Amino acid sequence: MENIFTHEYFMKKAYQEAQAAYSKGEIPVGAVVVVDNRVIAKTHNLTELLTDVTAHAEMQAITAAAGFLGGKYLTGCTLYVTLEPCQMCAGALYWSQVSRVVYAAHDTHRGYTAMGGKLHPKTEVITGIMEAECGELIKAFFRERRGS
After folding, report:
1. Which residues are catalytic?
2. pTM of the entire structure?
């Protein structure tokens, strides 16, 4: 029997969250947290709605997952996110001790790798899952906002 719970399967869930953000005028980044093939948190950027620069999808997902688990550490969990986390989110992911981060599109300007940030040494990182689709959604959002 084929395992349907692939990285693409969960990234599609994060992509749906990014599309929800797009429709609300938020920068279209979506995130889900998974443990044992079960989504325990799903969210998207809420910076405009909450007027809070820290309300990134990853931050919202960390908080929701920790609440679900009843503890601050996300060991055994995987975060799927449509855009490479920024340095702030990487710091929060570091402290959460999340076991794996899977992100779609690279952020060559504000991503944690470009800014010298790092994740916990035990965190596995996988990139490029649905990179084209997620990257295009971000580009379309900014083209629309800038009128080009």
Report:
1. 58
2. 0.95
